[in-house]
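From the shared-data thread, chain only:
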Amino acid sequence: MICHGDFEKYHVEDVEVLRQRHRKPISDIKLTDDMVTVIIPCYMEQTWMVQRTVDSLLENARGPIEIYVVYDGECGEHIGGATVHRLANRVGQRVITNMVAGQTTGKYIMRMDGHCLMSPDWDARMKESCVDGTLVTTCFDTLDKDFNKVGQDNAFVKLFPTMREKFGRNWKSIPERQTEEETMTITGTAFMMNRSDFYRLGGHDISLGVFGGIGAEWALKFWLTGGRVIIRTDVVCYHHFRFKTPYEVNVIKQEWAYGDLYRQFVKGENKMCTRPFEWLLLHFSNWVKWPEGSW
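Structure, as C-alpha cells:
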C-alpha cells in the first residue's frame, strides 16, 4: 500500500522515542547518598501490581531508597523489597503518609500509587530539583490492564473551581519543554518533597479525610506559601488509570474535602498562606482560566 500524503508534515513520532531524544544525560552531581522514603498506601490493590511497582522503583533507582507498603484496613500479602505494614482499620492515605514519615528518616518523601512503573534514574533526577520549597512531580504515561506502556503523554495538570485536577492536553510538546516546568497542581499519583517541607507545611491535613484532593492539597500548600510546584519532565511515571475504583467512595465526605480545600486556599482561611489564590490564577493565566465569579 502506497501513502500519497506528506509523511514529513503529518508523521507523529513515537512518544517514547521523543522522550529519549530530548532527555539529557544524568550527571554525577545528581547522585547523592540522601535517602528517599517511598510511601505506597494500598487499599484493594492487586498484589502483582504492587510488586511490579516496588520492583520498578528499585530497578530504576540510582541512589538509596526505602519503600513502605501500607495495607489500609486489610491483611495484604508479602511484597519483596519493601517494608510492609498492615493496619487493622482503614485510616486513609493521609494518615498513612503522616505515620510513615514520622517513623523514617529519609531526606526526601515520595508518595506513590501501588500500580505504577518508573523511568530510569527517577530518584536522582527528582532529587536534583527537590530543593527547599519545591514540590516535584513527574510526567505520566498510561499502563493497560497487563502493565504494558500505552505511549500517552500527560504532564501539566490544571485545577478547577471544584478543586479537581485534570491533565491539560493543550500544553507544551515534549521538544518544547525544559527539564523543569512549573505546573498549577498535581495528581496524587507520584510526587516528592523534602522532609523539612513536609513538616513545615504540617504534613497531610487529616481533617480532609480519606478521599479527595491529595494533589491539590500539596500543590496549594506549596504555591500559596511562597514555594513552587514543578514537573521533572525527564522522569515518567507509567500509571494504570483505573476506569472505576474497586471500592465504594463516600461522596458526601469527598465533597466536604474539596469544599474545605476551597475555603482554606481560595477563600483564604488557611493562615499559612502568603499569596492569595488570585496570584496562582494569574501565574498560570496562559494555560488556565476559571469562569468569572467562580472564586
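The mean pLDDT is 91.
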